Amino acid sequence: MKDFSYLPTNQGKRLFIKDITHYLVPPNGQPASIAPSLLPLKKGVGTLESQQNTNGEANGVAHCTPYPYPTPAEPGNPTVIPKAVLEEFHFTFLIRHPSSSIPSYYRCTVPPLDEVTGFYNFMPSEVGYSELRRVFDYLRSIGQVGPTVAGRDAAYSNGTNGVNGEASHAKVDICVVDADDLLDNPGGMIEAYCKSVGIDYDERMLNWDTPEEHEQAKNAFAKWNGFHNDAIESSCLKPRLHVSRPLESLDLAFNFRCKFFLFRFHHQPPLPSPSSRLDILRVSKRTLIRVLKPLLTYFGYKKKQMKSNEDQDSEWNEKFGAKGAKIIRETVNANIADYEYLKSFAIKV
After folding, report:
1. Does the global pTM surpass 0.85?
2. Is 306 or 313 the better-scoring residue by pLDDT?
3. Which of 152, 181, 91, 87 is nearest to 345 (CA)?
4. 186-193: which pairs have CB atoms within 8 A and are 24 or more residues apart?
């Protein structure tokens, strides 16, 4: 991580890193101290020759496995990363509702997927919401992010900021992206994100359907086999739609669409047969969303609605058994407050 922080400046590029924040924080709520490998180099330490002669030491500090390190702590810093290194990065926080993320993670730790992932035990301490909140609050407290919130403040914009060191951290927005918002409105969310981090938005960002792009995705996720299959097999980001009413209501919405065009074009278009209605709905989805959004919200389509606890528990019990459902419910409940706190800062479009 320390080495990566210098690449963008040296090559005139911005390096994108996606990682799990709670791996930067000591486990089980232990107090943080700086990782030995990230301490300022001492004279004679850090070269290949000196590393060969340190006999189990890193930067003059004896290795401790796995924690704690016999190194100094930084006041308020919940991570093992020095503040000076954290300041080299422009942070975005990607969150997902615990009732979606935790069952997904649990699924990767039980048969049959555990044989693919290599994860055979579900660990509630690995879900990371508490650690993410602590890091988030620390970065806010030292002024590395905020006080403006991406997508909230009318004048928010980082311009070309994001290459830290060239601009004040006060100009870096709080940038929290909620996965549900991204899936419901990918174009709007990606455009707002680009504005926040100082990247020109292009609609082509929502599509990756060339052999080269698929190969790149497979290589990028190869280390985490089984965890990202849906992402690897995807080719684009498009708004997800959810049927909220019976098909009869969709038929009514469809007929209203035909009457709408009757009014617009001053002629009566022939109504298609019932068997072809869904095909035309599929072709006209973008038009329906843009032009008839209020109607669709009432008659057929709306954003994803949260299932009741009873429905969730029933689904988890069917998939993972009573014991698994109980573990998932307890873990979800333990992390809701941290998620909702972070969600209060999420981009809105």
Report:
1. no
2. 313
3. 152
4. 186/237, 186/238, 186/239, 187/237, 187/239, 188/349, 189/347, 189/349, 190/237, 191/349, 192/150, 192/151, 192/347, 192/349, 193/92, 193/150, 193/347
